[in-house]
Specification:
Length: 393
């Protein structure tokens, strides 16, 4: 029974609701809403070997993409990994995740990703640390006000295509932001009980130069904090205009909270470093199909290089073996075979692929090893700014 099956309507759904409530301390109503949002067809269940009618564990698949090297690569996200309390510690999660990775490979996904409550569980399956999600807290009194003669307008449903275009234009400049699907986009506008209102800067051709989605929460003293579920801008004046727009809440607002990476362009526009940044999460990546993932990623157009890798993958044995990565003018060709100079676990490949660790750093974690020439070459190919995403899934 080491295969995953879809969730059946009826008793299966009741069991799923109970498992999710007991895993994440949710309410049955909240869990049912979440199941509908994630699409019940994307729930996968591992059945109890002794009682095949009963789900022992489940997860939600979230098909989407993720930007690396300026390109969107198909990514199968995982959320809601849950094992019924009475079944824990018996290997159900491990078996389910192994089957998930296998299924993702069979369906042609190059990458899978997740946020991990238990690093050791996902590491065993080949997931590895691959990027960051930081929370910023900025006192409103420290937001700058600029005289930028552009208009900010409230956004409506009809503006969402323009929002999504602006987001893609912004996000592809970084390693790690999601190429969001409907599940993530819906959470930008409403996350559980919290609704977010959009504002944007339109240009003359129906595009947006920048936008944000905000929620105002009232403090006991009557003042308020603002939280952004999303913030993107495509030029310096647009960034300045959005910060000025936010600064105009300062009369009643105390703190602005939003999410990003070690660097966020909005932080660089602040006049002083009077804000707090703390690491909310690191997220994990799993290279499901090394040849497809390496070929799909973007590389520096300045490079003309050939890297010989050897990858080891215990969960998907057909991934194990030598690969030759040929990069020219920003594109890659990948073929099986070659000298295997840089020896890399499938975990290590995730950390290199996302630019989370350089090969020299990855060697310290035991993720890869090789002669100095191969480490240097890989360092050049996978060089990039630190990977991050603002979304949590
Ligand atoms: C996390 C969870 C899914 C693990 O399910 P499980 O079936 O008990 O896990 P398994 O028995 O398959 O254990 C696999 C690995 O997970 C890790 N693990 C499991 N239970 C653990 C615990 N209580 N403490 C630390 N690590 C644990 C171990 O590395 C284990 O491997 P090992 O025993 O060889 O060291 C389950 O405890 C759960 O539903 N928790 C609540 C919800 C949650 O945290 N979901 C994950 C969100 S990302």
């Amino acid at each position: 029974m080491n295969t995953l099956t879809p969730l059946a309507q009826g008793p299966d759904t009741d069991t799923a609701v109970r498992m999710l409530c007991q895993a994440f301390a949710g309410t049955p109503e909240g869990v049912r809403e979440w199941l509908a949002l994630g699409d019940i067809a994307n729930i996968r269940v591992l059945r109890h070997p002794d009682q095949p009618a009963n789900p022992a564990s489940l997860l939600l698949r979230i098909p989407m993409g993720q930007f690396f090297g300026g390109r969107s690569i198909p990514l199968l996200g995982v959320a809601g990994v849950a094992v019924a309390p009475e079944n824990r510690g018996r290997g159900f999660a491990r078996t389910m995740m192994q089957a998930f990775v296998r299924e993702a490979r069979d369906q042609g996904f190059p990458l899978a990703g997740l946020y991990a409550s238990t690093h050791s569980l996902y590491r065993q399956i080949g997931f590895e640390h691959a990027g960051f999600r930081f929370q910023y807290r900025i006192p409103f009194s420290h937001l700058p006000r600029h005289k930028v003669p552009t208009t900010v307008v409230p956004l409506a449903d009809a503006d969402m295509p323009a929002v999504q275009r602006a987001y893609a234009n912004f996000a592809r400049r970084y390693n790690g932001p999601l190429d969001r699907g409907p599940y993530i986009w819906s959470r930008i506008r409403k996350l559980r009980e919290t609704a977010y209102t959009g504002f944007g800067i339109p240009d003359d051709s129906g595009n947006l130069l920048g936008y944000l989605f905000l929620n105002q929460s009232r403090r006991p003293d009557g003042r308020q904090d603002l939280q952004l579920s999303d913030l993107a801008f495509l030029s310096l004046p647009a960034g300045q205009r959005l910060l000025t727009f936010l600064a105009d809440f300062a009369m009643m607002a105390e703190d602005l909270v939003f999410f990003g990476g070690p660097e966020h362009p909005a932080l660089t526009l602040l006049p002083q470093q009077r804000h707090e940044v703390f690491l909310k999460d690191t997220w994990f990546l799993r290279v499901i199909d090394p040849a497809a993932a390496l070929a799909a990623r973007g590389y520096s157009p300045a490079l003309d290089a050939e890297l010989h890798l050897h990858i080891t993958d215990d969960t998907i044995p057909e991934n194990t073996g030598p690969y030759t990565l040929r990069v020219r003018r920003g594109d890659a060709d990948v073929s099986r075979g070659g000298r295997g100079d840089l020896r890399c676990s499938i975990n290590g490949l995730a950390a290199l692929f996302s630019s989370f660790a350089s090969p020299h750093q990855a060697a310290l974690a035991g993720w890869c090893q090789g002669p100095p020439d191969a480490l240097d070459l890989a360092a050049g190919l996978f060089a990039g700014t630190p990977p991050w995403m603002s979304d949590m899934y």
